[in-house]
Amino acid sequence: MDSYSALLVSNDPGILSVTQRVLEEYGFQVNRVATSAAAEQAIRSVRFDLAIYDNDVPGALQLAGSHSTIAAKMAFALMRRQTVKEANGKQVHFIIQKPFTTDLITRSLRAAFGTMLRQKRRSFRHPVQIVPLSCTADFDGGPKNLGNPKILNISQSGLCIKVDDLVTQGAKVQIEFELPDSFEKVCLGGVVIWSQASGRTGVKLTDVAVEHQKMLNEWLNNRLPYPTELLPRVMLAAPPRPFASTLSM
Description:
Elements: E1 4-9, H1 13-25, E2 28-33, H2 36-43, E3 48-54, E4 72-80, E5 94-98, H3 102-123, E6 126-130, E7 134-139, E8 142-145, E9 150-154, E10 158-162, E11 172-178, E12 185-195, E13 200-208, H4 210-221, E14 245-247
Helix pairs in contact: 1-3
């Protein structure tokens, strides 16, 4: 499994020691910086999987940004109780109140890691070479069969097909096929979100019957490179959103 990247912004030796050790136990490649200026330099070329901002570092929390300026896919803020409100409007998913224990940061990172792993599993594109039983798209005035369709890759939330036609963005697609090494048929409905002159077309799944989504998910889960046993059985927080959780001793 590919390693994750983490940005750790702190100048506190205790925080650096404990947090880096826990991050590395979860397989993160850690970039430690002591100032917000150094952190800003780091995020110019890399979008990190996780960022941990120590609010005692001047300007660190500002790096969490708003929805339009996101430096990391998930962000932690290490804050003292009296400063928690400073996270308002920032893209922060977990707030950990200082001082904290090794157990608290471990449990928090376990929750975050599980969420990130689930998201990665869901978006992983499995390469395939599937000729559909049928493939239609509604564009240019009505539904039409797409010429010589072939599914090139597929995930739980979308797929890429190659066809003879140039399908316009926003077109609705219906595609039916047999899952490889299986006699099960699935019918998927989606919307074209991009297309190329070569005929490669990206489809986001939007209309799939529950039983067909279940069959697709099970088929993909048996082939994904992220083992289910790595997922925490107990999550401490819901899927990430601003202010998803505030944790303290």
